[in-house]
Amino acid sequence: VFDSFKNKTGDFKASLNDDTKGLLQLYEASFLLTKGETTLELAREFSANLLRKKLNDDRIHDDEGGILLLMVRHALELPIHWRVQRPNARWFIEQVYEKSQHVNPILLELAKLDFNIVQSTHQQELKHLSSWWEQTELAKTLPFARDRLVENYLWTI
Asked: Within 10 Å of residue 143's Cβ, how many Cβ atoms?
């Protein structure tokens, strides 16, 4: 699929430089590679270099008040597939969608409500897990067990 972005010589098409949203999507997709997928490795290098150049040259312009610039910075900092999903969802709601010109107030309210409900559920689960962890005293009985309950919990969600 990604070979369609290449020209006859095997390089990525120069026309991709004009489409910042497309470059951003190519960059994000390149992190879904498996070992030995050289096309995606090249796509990552190509798109990352162009996106960094655009950031340095202030060539990211869109009609959304800098949202695209914010999304590119966010992606270059850490790809979306490597982020913890719920905090990233909150970032998107607060930093991107609320500032969008095409915001749907009902959808925004629903997204915030969903985030708060899920966060409340996680807090309740952590409360029960903390109680269980203290009652079992596993950190004391098993010296090799790490006392990092919240960190381990967050990795599971």
From this structure: 6
